[in-house]
């Protein structure tokens, strides 16, 4: 699904702890799309020679089309919180307060629950919206969870449910209000060809950088085959 | 990491850590061992091994002072010091809760813009000490960090720079055209010490890889104070094991 969202991008960057977006971008490459994928945490052949500073400099100049951000909490205004929630401390904001302003951003979180998708975040690591005088070429583009895909409506500052991955009561598991069509379509599943690429060349590309993720996901899949 | 273990053995106290731009296992060890008063960072985590357990508990219990920031703000603040200017502007951030209560960040107006153009001004940061591990140190006192050139910015901005190196080598690396771009000149290096496998359980590019299994073992052990103490006993207080390959 992520691969379809960012299919037209020329340059996509993937930050820390994002194996699933990384897999999506590598899938696009494996399909022969002319896309540059910059993975911040690539251990071998990392494209940066000035560490992560170069990522932010690239983004600041508008040289990165898409980025991915998650959150301990995300709200209906597309604010993200990576710092603290319900008395629990999370790692921190990373580069979100900058990248969210400069790249079209796919918000991604596997867990779809009222605990994560809240009416209002407890701490704003990066805001979903900025007043017109604030320079902001980037911002929210879509929100993808393990259950559904939402599009961001910039003019209304609200999410709109686009599709769900399996039949479910999305309102019941979402803490914020959103627009939805009367009939919510199902997300088209990955094709056999896409799955084959994901389990083959994509898995090989990712395994050195996300060994734990790769063995959890592809180790099991390959074990079953 | 060898220097971190040495700091714990020396019972360092009241350290203020600056993450450039994030912190990981080194910080978690220092926090768990009671060496740290303040953490100023964009994030503290163990990467794929998950949350940094000693940081998380100390933060939740309010045992350390926290300055939450965002990665490019740290780079910008160090670059300001590098250039000897008091602050530098940075796009983004406005509307985040991060600037709340911070006196070293201000929102100003772009003086070159015709209309309203608010922009964040980040005060320069000059750390007392920079500490990192590198591949080589040479007779002239230079160290080679290769592609990790952001480390040069830390060294340029810090008042003192201490480095552990995998290997000491003869000569002057600045005389070698191929090595020179990855070198931090001795002018910025207070001193270096040889510490073979000194990054372990983290890695050094092309020399040894990160020991993922050990980091995961640490993440599990450090979930409790008792487990963390046992880890220290085994890998820090008795220094034998820490330099051996996993």
Describe the secondary-structure layout.
The complex is a heterodimer of chains A (225) and B (246).
Chain A: H1 2-5, E1 11-14, H2 19-30, E2 36-39, H3 52-60, E3 66-69, E4 73-75, E5 80-81, E6 84-85, E7 88-89, H4 96-102, E8 104-109, E9 117-118, E10 139-145, E11 148-153, E12 158-164, H5 192-206, H6 211-224
Parallel strand pairs in A: 1-2, 3-8, 4-9, 8-10
Antiparallel strand pairs in A: 4-5, 6-7, 10-11, 11-12
Helix pairs in contact in A: 2-5
Chain B: H1 2-9, E1 15-18, H2 25-32, E2 36-41, H3 53-60, E3 65-68, H4 71-83, E4 87-90, E5 105-109, E6 118-123, E7 129-138, E8 143-144, H5 150-157, E9 160-169, E10 183-184, E11 191-194, H6 212-221, H7 225-237
Helix pairs in contact in B: 1-2, 2-3, 4-5
Question: Describe it for me?
Answer:
- The complex is a heterodimer of chains A (225) and B (246).
- Chain A has 225 residues and is α/β, with parallel strands linked by helices.
- Chain A has one domain (2-224): Glutaconate Coenzyme A-transferase, CATH 3.40.1080.10.
- In chain A, 27% of the residues lie in helices and 22% in strands.
- Chain A has helices spanning 2-5, 19-30, 52-60, 96-102, 192-206, 211-224; strands at 11-14, 36-39, 66-69, 73-75, 80-81, 84-85, 88-89, 104-109, 117-118, 139-145, 148-153, 158-164.
- Chain A has a five-stranded mixed β-sheet. A three-stranded mixed β-sheet of chain A has the order 5-4-9, with no helix packed on it.
- In chain A, α2 crosses α5.
- With 246 residues, chain B is an alpha/beta fold.
- Chain B has three domains: 1-69 and 211-241, Glutaconate Coenzyme A-transferase (3-Layer(aba) Sandwich); 87-123, no CATH class; 126-206, no CATH class.
- In chain B, a hairpin with a 4-residue loop joins β7 and β8.
- The longest helix of chain B has 13 residues, at 71-83.
- The chains are: A alpha/beta (225), B alpha/beta (246).
- Chains A and B meet through α3, β7, α4 and α6 of A and α3, α4 and α5 of B.
């Amino acid at each position: 699904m992520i691969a379809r969202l960012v299919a037209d991008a020329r340059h996509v960057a993937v930050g820390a702890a994002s194996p699933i977006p990384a897999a999506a971008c590598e899938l696009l490459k494996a399909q022969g799309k002319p896309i540059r994928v910059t993975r911040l945490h690539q251990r071998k052949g990392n494209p940066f020679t000035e560490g992560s500073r170069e990522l932010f400099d690239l983004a600041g100049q508008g040289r990165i089309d898409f980025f991915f951000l998650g959150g301990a909490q995300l709200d209906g205004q597309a604010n993200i919180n990576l710092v603290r929630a319900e008395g629990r401390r999370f790692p921190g904001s990373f580069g979100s307060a900058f990248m969210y302003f400069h790249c079209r951003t796919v918000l991604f979180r596997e867990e779809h629950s009222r605990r994560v998708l809240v009416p209002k975040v407890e701490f704003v690591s990066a805001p979903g919206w900025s007043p017109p005088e604030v320079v902001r070429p980037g911002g929210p583009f879509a929100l993808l969870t393990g259950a559904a895909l939402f599009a961001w409506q910039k003019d209304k500052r609200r999410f709109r449910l686009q599709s769900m991955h399996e039949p479910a009561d999305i309102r019941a598991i979402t803490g914020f209000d959103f627009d939805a069509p009367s009939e919510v379509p199902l997300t088209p599943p990955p094709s056999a060809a896409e799955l084959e690429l994901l389990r083959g060349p994509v898995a090989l590309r990712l395994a050195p950088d996300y060994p734990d993720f790769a063995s959890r996901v592809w180790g099991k899949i390959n074990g079953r085959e | 990491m060898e220097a971190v273990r040495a700091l714990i053995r020396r019972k360092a106290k009241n350290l203020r850590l600056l993450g450039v731009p994030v912190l990981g296992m080194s910080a978690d060890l220092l926090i768990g061992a009671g060496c740290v008063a303040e953490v100023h960072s964009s994030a503290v985590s163990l990467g794929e091994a998950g949350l940094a357990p000693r940081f998380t508990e100390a933060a939740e219990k309010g045992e350390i002072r926290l300055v939450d920031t965002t990665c490019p703000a740290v780079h910008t603040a160090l670059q300001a010091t590098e250039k000897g200017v008091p602050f530098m502007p940075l796009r983004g951030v406005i509307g985040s809760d991060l600037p709340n209560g911070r006196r070293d960040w201000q929102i100003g107006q772009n003086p070159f813009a015709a209309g309203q153009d608010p922009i964040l001004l980040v005060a320069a940061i000059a750390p007392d000490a920079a500490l990192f591990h590198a591949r080589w140190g040479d007779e002239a006192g230079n160290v080679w960090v290769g592609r990790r050139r952001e480390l040069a910015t830390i060294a340029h901005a810090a008042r003192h720079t201490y480095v552990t190196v995998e290997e000491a080598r003869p000569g002057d690396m600045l005389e070698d055209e191929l090595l020179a771009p990855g070198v931090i000149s001795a002018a910025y290096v207070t001193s270096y010490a040889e510490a073979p496998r000194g990054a372990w359980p983290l890695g050094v590019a092309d020399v040894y890889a990160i020991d993922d299994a050990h980091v995961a073992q640490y993440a599990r052990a450090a979930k409790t104070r008792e487990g963390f103490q046992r880890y220290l006993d085994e890998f820090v207080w008795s220094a034998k094991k820490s330099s051996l390959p996993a």
